[in-house]
Design goal:
- By secondary structure, the protein is α/β, with parallel strands linked by helices.
- It has a single domain (21-154, 187-221), classed as Rossmann fold.
- The chain has helices spanning 2-8, 12-20, 23-38, 54-59, 75-84, 121-131, 153-169, 173-184, 189-196, and strands at 45-48, 68-72, 92-93, 106-112, 132-143, 200-209, 214-221.
- The protein has a seven-stranded mixed β-sheet, sandwiched between helices.
């Protein structure tokens, strides 16, 4: 996963704006708003697959930056973020599958457009559940495959032509084919909810684009059952 993002780190924010026509910024603000509305006085906030840290920076508008941990496996991405957001101090190199944090130490975990890049989703979800306190929140933005009902030409053109075309324009064709393929090959929103249901309860599910092509979801970490002898 690291190499494609290493290759596009210096262009990543510009290309996100181009490919989403700037709407990813609105979606991220909405996710932060939803999470902070549900958890008014959070402790530690962990932003997984933070990239250049724009989502973590949105939290820092409302929450002291000292309690925010931007985490990513791609060092060059975070290096860009350190320049953009020097007030964020807790940059951490790591993956969702092996979080370098203590159990029940996080109030909110977020992940914007990163779940589909997890190498081992089940293990990553276990780790996220481990570090979240009972009742802690896991908020996601994600891209899913286009539903059969929406397989008409604008969406096919976007995925099959525009995304790799932008990659060719910036001499990063392979990296943007990778991004296209991870979106097209990801699971449906319903399957994602099912995979998380063992440890999380769904609190919010919003279809932000084309009936589920982009989703916002907020999950609550279930409390451990009481063991009675």
């Amino acid at each position: 996963m690291r190499q494609p993002f290493n290759d596009i780190a210096h262009q990543y924010d510009l290309l996100n704006d181009l490919l989403s026509f700037g709407t990813h910024r609105f979606w991220k603000r909405r996710l932060v708003s939803q999470l902070l509305r549900a958890k008014i006085c959070p402790g530690t906030i962990l932003d997984i697959a933070t990239g250049t840290g724009d989502l973590a920076a949105l939290f820092s508008r409302k929450i002291p930056p000292q309690v925010i941990i931007p985490l990513d496996p791609c060092g060059p991405m975070m290096d860009r973020g350190k320049i953009r957001f020097p007030h964020l101090q807790n940059w951490t190199l790591g993956t969702a599958e092996s979080l370098p944090l203590g159990s029940a130490s996080v109030s909110i975990a977020s992940c914007a457009f990163g779940v589909r890049n997890f190498r081992e989703r089940e293990k990553a979800f276990e780790e996220i559940a481990r570090v979240l306190e009972p009742g802690g929140l896991f908020g996601t933005l994600e891209i899913h495959p286009i539903s059969e009902q929406l397989r008409y030409w604008p969406y096919r053109f976007f995925w099959n032509s525009l995304v790799p075309g932008v990659g060719r324009l910036f001499n990063q064709k392979a990296a943007y084919e990778y991004l296209r393929d991870t979106g097209a090959g990801f699971i449906s929103p319903e399957d994602m909810i099912k995979e998380l249901s063992h440890r999380f309860e769904l609190k919010t599910h919003e279809n932000l684009l084309a009936g589920g092509l982009v989703t916002l979801m907020v999950f609550e970490r279930k409390h451990e059952p009481n063991n009675k002898n």
